[in-house]
Specification:
300 residues; 6-stranded parallel β-sheet; 4-stranded parallel β-sheet; binds iron/sulfur cluster
């Protein structure tokens, strides 16, 4: 079969589903390549992760076109035989890192997050083959330490002997053993955690974490615009500042991508996400537009 692939989002991050599709069809002896609009294919796979990208300009020729990915349908999954295939990194020759999962799903069901709806409760999965050209590993687990087999995962990462970047470490559950395990790995760009729920005070958990992992190695995502007040946003950000942890403010985007962040959300993200601004002044002293200091938000 002649297979064409389309990464509808065309963003900078490799599309794992397309790599698995390529790996699956390669093992069957099919020819697999990125689709060209002037060629005819037996089958084209279109993958879309984000709802805001469109596939309107895809006049491709094929006997069959299969569309998949969260951008089309939150419940979209790969057929089991493809999901169990090893990713073919050769479709992204510039990619010099590996993607890895040791678990899917999550123990939580946060109201702003699609993970539980899409992947269900946390469950261990077999790690995939690494990118032969990979220099580090992006661990994409949603909640790495909620996996009951996290120790095996850490052992596997140590054996791989490459720097590791974690995308999902849940500071609410991390204990001393886990913090030590993290610190004993070669970390790339630190550890990424989140403080999304404004009514939960994570100060003590963050303090405990910084006993084992240096604060400057921690980046904390802070969700704003989802049922939080400015006081709750500032409490979280000022606490992170006191502890020396780098924040990354994310204004809430809904699945349909219809919600537009408010000016306040854009301003607080602009302040917090620029290290020199965040470190040098308080949000109330930040002047994003001439004559407008952010302390005015407090009076609105
Ligand atoms: S802990 Fe993270 S991954 Fe899990 S449901 Fe909440 S936001 Fe989603």
């Amino acid at each position: 079969m002649k297979i064409g692939l389309i990464d509808v989002d065309s963003h900078n991050f490799p599309n794992l589903a397309l790599m698995k599709i390529a790996g699956y069809h390669n093992t069957k002896g099919d020819s697999v390549d990125w689709a060209w609009s002037f060629l005819h294919y037996d089958r084209i796979y279109m993958s879309k992760v984000f709802t805001f990208t469109t596939d309107d300009n895809c006049p491709y020729l094929a006997n069959e076109i299969i569309k998949g990915g969260t951008g089309y349908d939150i419940k979209s999954t790969l057929p089991i035989e493809i999901d169990n295939s090893q990713p073919d990194y050769s479709i992204y020759p510039e990619c010099d890192f590996s993607l890895q999962f040791y678990s899917r799903g999550c123990i939580r069901n946060c109201p702003f997050c699609l993970v539980h709806d899409k992947e269900g409760d946390i469950h261990t999965v077999e790690p995939m083959d690494l990118n032969p050209k990979g220099k580090w590993i992006e661990v994409l687990d949603n909640n790495f330490f909620a996996n009951p087999n996290w120790r095996e995962a850490v052992k596997h990462l140590k054996k791989c002997n490459q720097p590791v970047k974690f995308h999902g470490v849940d500071v609410r559950i991390i204990d001393e053993e886990q913090a030590r395990a993290l610190n004993n790995l070669r970390l790339k760009n630190g550890v990424h955690i989140a403080w999304d729920l404004p009514h939960i005070d994570l100060t003590e958990q963050l303090k405990a974490m910084t006993k084992h992992i240096k604060a400057y190695k921690i980046v904390c995502y802070v969700l704003v615009g989802f049922n939080s007040t400015m006081d709750q946003d500032l409490f979280r950000l000022r606490t992170l500042k006191e502890l020396g942890i780098t924040p990354f403010v994310q204004p809430y985007r809904d699945y349909e991508n219809k919600r537009i962040p408010s000016q306040y959300e854009k301003d607080i993200a602009r302040w917090a996400n620029r290290a020199w601004l965040f470190k040098s002044m308080d949000f109330f002293d930040f002047e994003p537009r001439k004559g407008f200091k952010c302390k005015l938000y407090h009076k609105e």
